[in-house]
Amino acid sequence: MTARTATDTGLRPKHVPQRTCVGCGSVTAKRALIRIVRGPEGEVRPDATGKAPGRGTYIHANRSCWESGLKKKRLEHSLKVTLTPASREALSVYAGTLPEETDA
Ligand SMILES: [Zn+2]
């Protein structure tokens, strides 16, 4: 009879950076989220590179998270900013390009 254990295989779990989605509030791997940044002039826009300077927040790439983030003002709270009509419009347009729901 052999008793083998699966421990010590050298497979350590990697540390994955996690962020909270500002839409649904769930914690998800950062790379599965879109960063939204508040620029130097107070404009709020999606940050495709994830590296734009300014205060950022993270959100799932689906429309329902964007809608709740926008409607419930969680996005504004998180970025400590009041969305201008132009920023709000731009974000709504962007949200419209996203899939309705993801299983992330
Ligand atoms: Zn979400």
Count of distinct structural domains? 1
Q: Based on Cα principal axes, name the global outline.
A: elongated
Give the class from helix and strand content and strand pairing: alpha+beta
Q: Quick check: average pLDDT?
A: 90
CATH architecture: 2-Layer Sandwich
* Largest sheet composition: 3 strands, antiparallel
The whole-angstrom Rg is 18 Å
Strand content: 15-25%
**What is the helix tally?**
3
Could you please describe the fold and organization of this structure?
By secondary structure, the chain is an alpha+beta fold. The protein is elongated and about 65 Å long. It has helices spanning 63-71, 74-79, 85-96; strands at residues 18-20, 27-29, 33-38, 44-47, 55-60. It has one domain (18-96): 2-Layer Sandwich (Hypothetical Cytosolic Protein, Chain: A), CATH 3.30.1230. It contains three helices and five strands, in the order βββββααα. The model has no long low-confidence stretch (mean pLDDT 90). The strands form two sheets. It has a three-stranded antiparallel beta sheet. The chain has a two-stranded antiparallel sheet with strand order 1-2. It binds zinc ion (ZN). Zinc ion binds next to loops. Zinc ion is lined by residues 21, 23-24, 26, 60, 65.
Name some characteristics of this structure.
104 residues, alpha+beta, Hypothetical Cytosolic Protein, Chain: A, three-stranded antiparallel beta sheet, two-stranded antiparallel sheet, 3 helices, elongated, binds zinc ion
